[in-house]
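Appendix B: complex inputs.
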Amino acid sequence: MSFTRPEPPYYAVIITSALDESNLDGYAAMDERMAELGRAQPGYLGRESRTAADGRELTVLYYQNAESIAAWKQHPEHLEAQRRGREAWYANYHIEVARVERAYGFVRQE
Amino acid sequence: MSFTRPEPPYYAVIITSALDESNLDGYAAMDERMAELGRAQPGYLGRESRTAADGRELTVLYYQNAESIAAWKQHPEHLEAQRRGREAWYANYHIEVARVERAYGFVRQE
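Resulting structure:
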């Protein structure tokens, strides 16, 4: 895992998405700006993200609590990014807000 | 998204993992067998999975409830697969069990 999680409970936002490759004007700059703003959001913990060869993304954003997620969703610049995303950049997306109840792991001891 | 979700609440198991590329004897056959057994598990809903270029995987398995997850974790063949995974195939893994509370999405209308 790419960052240190706190003990549960905490929150995960699971995002599956596909960009519309024919219409990405302005996307890269907005994506970078949202990542920067998102990292500065109170309660933001970290993220895991992978992109398949066909462009479908799977991202999990982690937050301390549900209030952090609601505040970020309503951030004025983020609202504008969401509007432009639906208008132009995304073919589809699906978002799930989930409460992490348990977590455990394994690291090979050399 | 690659399958139809029910209305929340339902459960997600978020798995970040990295294989030990030097030691994958028997892994592919076991992985296929576990996928087959896992799909047949009562309460299993579906999965999302992406692998990064460096081999790090991000997988989300979806289940109707926490009892389905607990039953699958204790399945005898799955217990043996977990043991061999820790002994040989995995460099590391991290598993989070989360209750999906809300979900929403967007699909571009052509």
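Chain A is about 30% helix and 40% strand.
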